[in-house]
Specification:
The structure is a homodimer. Chain A has twelve helices and five strands. Chain A has helices at about 15-30, 55-80, 100-105, 125-130, 135-140, 160-165, 170-190, 205-215, 225-230, 235-245, 265-280, 290-300; strands at about 90-95, 115-120, 150, 190-200, 255-260. The longest helix of chain A is centred in the first third of the chain and has 27 residues, at about 55-80. Chain A is globular. The interface between A and B is large, with 51 and 51 residues. Chains A, B: This is Polyphosphate kinase 2 family protein.
């Protein structure tokens, strides 16, 4: 039994694993923003499907196929935490209204066991939150050891909407980029794999999605006057995103730009990014810290 | 459009709805513990499948069929909360080791959108938790308006393991039943539908499940010395459960006894109980609080 521990539970063998690594490494590399480069979001096509040439139907099938691997890796991560492994994953979703942050939570986070998944949506800060540093509410919502945390919006709002709507002095905003980098570095030190995804949609696609919401009374609750106002500020938001992505893409917490005009591609890409990062962590089931044979005997007697 | 609001999104019509109510009401009635009766858990068959005569294969299909309805009702509940509806659901899972609390979270809670689902597993209280009343950590983990909360163990541990292991004076335990009843009454007053499920497994079935865990190294992390000790205290735990169920089954927060030797039945039953309770809440999408035609015009102009 001891010898089998290393390969238990259907881990792929060396060759398969190597193939898999090669294939998935491609997407991380493709979508990862180079550190410190100047960014022009207009040069990214929101309808593009990097590393996927097989169209929507095959894409949806590939997403369904991911479920088992994601759930298996999550269980290993969780199991490892019961033996003291502090590692966890934090997926941060940012993007303009209708870019699909909520849809990603539903369709991608929905593939995990909810017991080990901590989802948090950040809205405009409450009165109490505003009494603290902008990272205060973020720290309180972090995943614990073994968990997958998912943020729908995040501390980046404090350099995005805060910049566009001038909710803080320019000097303070400038300070925040550095504070965010230090914060994320400290998370990485503490075993948190920080996976930041910018869901990149086009101005046209947002219009189509907002119109679709208006045309369906069951979606009206998702709509607010702010959505129209923010759309009018599209160029300012784009600029704010470019600055945030530039300044806060660091070696240990890089940004990934995910083309998001196609929902199936967005889900496939984020699922794949999660899969790659979890595979890189390679969490292992802890070995028994008790005498299995002895316990077996005790149980067989307890009829 | 206004007229359609009441029936939007494929709600069943009057006749279908009536049929559905009749059918589902049956399970709530069947599994609900009568208020204040003496309880002999030995008289409940853990392999029974109340209200389901069609076997496992059809049971699994029925669970898969539930997903859409559960997700739809959850979205309505969430949407209603954005317009001030305070209602939410709290599913409390209790049962002996291996009774399937974790499995229920995975398979039943897994059918909800994780964004509106707050899962919390309660373990032995931490040092900090022990400095407060036993309800302190419970209050902090309650679902917010529009959410589905799920507790894997709960404040009932403080009258179960606390009673069996004598972690508190007898007098204090006695006081706690009353405090729990007042607490749950106040939750109901505050819009919380409290759904308490006792997962009822047999002594034999627990032995089989513990042996299966021992035989699979990937499950060893779920095992602890306490499991064997607790099994030796089976009669004491059963008695503690009987007392807790008797004293804390109230009209506004009744206990449901769910036969749990068959995992598929357990999942079907708890999914069905959730469905019934959500249907009874009948949450509605809020109507638009803005001028739809006006917004449509603005959007059409923003090309």
């Amino acid at each position: 039994m001891g010898e089998k521990d290393g390969t238990q539970g259907g881990r792929p063998d060396g060759h398969e694993r190597h193939e898999k690594d090669k294939e998935s490494a491609r997407l991380s590399t493709l979508l990862r923003l180079p550190d410190g480069d100047d960014i022009d979001l207009a040069s990214y096509d929101a309808r593009d499907t990097p590393a996927w040439q097989d169209g929507k139907t095959a894409g949806l099938a590939a997403i369904a196929d991911m479920r088992e691997d994601l759930a298996d890796l999550q269980e290993r991560l969780w199991a490892a935490s019961t033996a003291g492994d502090r590692r966890r994953v934090l997926l941060i979703l940012q993007g303009m209204d209708t870019s699909g942050k909520g849809g990603t939570v539903k369709h991608v986070a929905g593939m995990f066991n909810p017991a080990g998944c901590r989802v948090r949506a950040f809205k405009a800060p409450t009165h109490e939150e505003n009494k603290h540093s902008f990272l205060w509410r973020i720290r309180r919502a972090l995943p614990e050891a073994g968990e997958i945390g998912i943020f729908d919006r995040s501390h980046y709002e404090d350099v995005l909407v805060a910049r566009v709507r001038e909710l803080a002095p320019h000097r303070e905003i400038t300070r925040r980029y550095r504070e965010i980098n230090r914060f994320e570095e400290s998370l990485a030190d503490d075993g948190v794999t920080v996976l930041k995804c910018f869901l990149h949609i086009s101005y046209d696609q947002q219009r189509r999605r907002l119109l679709r919401r208006l045309d369906n009374p069951a979606k009206h609750w998702k709509f607010s006057a702010g959505d129209i106002e923010d759309r009018a500020l599209w160029p300012e938001y784009r600029k704010a995103y470019e600055i945030a992505l530039e300044r806060c893409s660091t070696p240990r917490a890089p940004w990934f730009v995910v083309p998001a005009d196609r929902k199936w591609y967005r889900n496939w890409a984020i699922g794949t990014l999660l899969l790659e990062h979890l595979e890189a962590l390679d969490p292992r089931y802890p070995k028994a810290d008790f005498d299995v044979t002895e316990y077996r005997k005790l149980l067989l007697k307890s009829v």
